[in-house]
Design a protein that fits this description.
With about 150 residues, the protein is of the alpha+beta class. The protein is built from 5 helices and 6 strands; from the N terminus they run H-H-H-E-E-E-H-E-E-H-E.
């Protein structure tokens, strides 16, 4: 398990290193700041959480009940006293993007990481999960009319 986390961390650093070539010193300084911010976004995880339902659930303090086991995704339900939430993992980024595109119809907030998504009934909990897992909170707009203030 440690070996897998090290491999994921190494690949992430390799991608960051190769994606940040060329440019002037200002770009290099901005790149270093972005890397530093990304690394500190998940202090409890130490590295970006791996795309495995059980590992992510453990980092958030639950034992998941696996609901979906498919080639395109795995999904586990976490039920706690504070909140119910879903952890969905994907074998490839393209499946995650397809899932997000489909979920956009419904709108809502999601915590999105590398090959994983966390969705909660109480969206304010996503910030707490973000401190443990990293990732970014995304607001999906949804379709249909927006409620008007009366």
């Amino acid at each position: 398990m440690v070996r897998g986390a090290a491999l994921i961390g190494s690949l992430a650093l390799l991608l960051l290193a190769t994606a940040c070539g060329g440019g002037d010193d200002g770009d290099a300084a901005e790149s270093k700041q972005a890397k530093k911010a990304a690394m500190s976004a998940a202090p409890a995880a130490g590295v970006v959480a791996p795309a495995k339902v059980e590992v992510i659930a453990n980092l958030t303090g639950c034992k998941p009940k696996i609901r979906i086991e498919a080639d395109e995704l795995r999904q586990g339900l976490c039920h706690t006293k504070k909140v119910d939430y879903l952890i969905t993992t994907f074998p490839e980024e393209k499946y995650k993007q397809t899932w997000l595109d489909s979920a956009a119809i419904y709108g809502g907030k999601y915590l999105v990481g590398s090959r994983w998504i966390v969705s909660a009934k109480e969206p304010e909990m996503l910030e707490q999960f973000r401190a443990k897992l990293g990732g970014n909170i995304q607001q999906l707009r949804g379709i249909g009319p927006t409620p008007s203030a009366s």
